[in-house]
Amino acid sequence: MKGQMTMYLDSGRSGILILLMALGMTQGDSSKTPPGPRVTCTCQGPTCQLPICQGIWCTVVLVREEGNHLQEYRGCGSINPEVCRGQPTEVFHHYCCSSSFCNSNVSLKLEATQTPEYPEADGQLPLILGPVLALLALVVLGTLGLWHVRRRQEKHRSLLSELGESSLILKASEQGDSMLGDLLDSDCTTGSGSGLPFLVQRTVARQVALMECVGKGRYGEVWRGLWHGESVAVKIFSSRDEQSWFRETEIYNTVLLRHDNILGFIASDMTSRNSSTQLWLITHYHEHGSLYDFLQRQTLEPQLALRLAVSAACGLAHLHVEIFGTQGKPAIAHRDLKSRNVLVKSNLQCCIADLGLAVMHSQGSDYLDIGNNPRVGTKRYMAPEVLDEKIRTDCFESYKWTDIWAFGLVLWEIVRRTIVNGIVEDYRPPFYDVVPNDPSFEDMKKVVCVDQQTPTIPNRLAADPVLSGLAQMMRECWYPNPSARLTALRIKKTIQKLSNNLEKPKVIH
């Protein structure tokens, strides 16, 4: 933890927010706090919405910001209290205690030339260690990260001078030579193995040049960017969707999510550009865009339909499963699964994107982390138990079942665009024939809950044994009783079985 915490010392608001997150300082959402005795604490800082919060311990963090300015933050610790035993440094200094309001009157000092002194509270004096080890770790980590970046930069500069930029990009694509690939595959990633260290993330973000806007929505915009000749996707969140940016940053930096069918994370940054604060999430770029866009342009042979479906199911199954061990991950429910949040890669496999509403669960501690995002999912894809507000919000399985309902709708979108005996339908979104273009909550509730309608499955699918199997699977995703629906793992295995006798599709370039 000591080495990881030194990564948070970059100045600026994003560094402070992520530092407080690493120390477990939240506004005390009781649904996120593990079982056990809780205390009430004073809450002051960017993560607080109320003057008090509840957690398993109270904390004070003193941060040296830009311009040598000192800022104190108070709050609650609601994750593993082991993080409270990290080392203080010359850039930040933290203090923890375990009785109600014990962080109210604590005042910390932070001096650049000596080890900060802890106040005594609750009759306990926390372990005091000098900043030397922490600073050494910071220097080593920073040097390793910057050395690796500079080594790759120098290599690419020399190639640029010899070959020119177009030749360099061609050479990189032919040989699989990728600066981002090297960085993400090296030992210089975060402890989770998901992304780069935070100091390097900010360096990468500041070197990205935005090239073209490839998507807009209520969330903000998605741009294609260039970083040293490589295309990356930059999702720029609107200011009202800050919690989604924060949640995705939190999940990608604390959970091992490297998987072929989950959108690859590169970096996250909160920065001031053009006199306004911008929230960036930088990921791998996929030129085919979303499955929604792909289906507008492309009709599908059955083999390609199965390839898209099984790869999306693999991504969902990876999210839903809890993996134990040091390289493990909690179970994750997506909560906003739809064709716009599934991307199509160049190899015509899908990957799942947008974890801004995700919920996490660990079986061992029965710890349910629902985040703190006021945004709700997409109404068109909401399961009946969400629309009639009967979902059990304290039960993790409930969230997985809503993902399965939505996955059935995505399957329906795929099979409508699949050619059977020369017949295919135009692309339409689910429930296109019974609700308006932008349906309200009440519109969807009437159709799904009152009328108990599901999308009409085309009769022509019965003529194809594989597609009739997909049709049956969709029906089993749409059972009104959530617990009767298929699991993501069962869907994955069934589609794999259906595709066993079909040849692989040709890749479109």
TrEMBL record:
- As given in the record, the signal peptide range reads 1-28
Q: InterPro entries recorded for this chain?
A: GS_dom, Kinase-like_dom_sf, Prot_kinase_dom, Protein_kinase_ATP_BS, Ser-Thr/Tyr_kinase_cat_dom, Ser/Thr_kinase_AS, Snake_toxin-like_sf, TGFB_receptor
Q: State the PROSITE patterns in the record.
A: GS, PROTEIN_KINASE_ATP, PROTEIN_KINASE_DOM, PROTEIN_KINASE_ST
TM spans, by residue?
125-147
Gene Ontology molecular function terms on file: kinase activity
For this protein, the Enzyme Commission number is 2.7.11.30
What is the membrane topology here?
Single-pass type I membrane protein
Cofactor section = Mg(2+); Mn(2+)
- Localization per Swiss-Prot or TrEMBL: Membrane
Its EC top class is transferase
The reply to whether Membrane figures as a keyword in the UniProt entry is yes
Domain annotation Protein kinase: ranges: 208-509
Q: Which reaction does it catalyse?
A: L-threonyl-[receptor-protein] + ATP = O-phospho-L-threonyl-[receptor-protein] + ADP + H(+)
Sites binding ATP sit at K235
GS domain sequence ranges = 178-207
Q: What is this protein called?
A: Serine/threonine-protein kinase receptor
The lineage, from the top, is: Eukaryota, Metazoa, Chordata, Craniata, Vertebrata
Gene (UniProt): ACVRL1
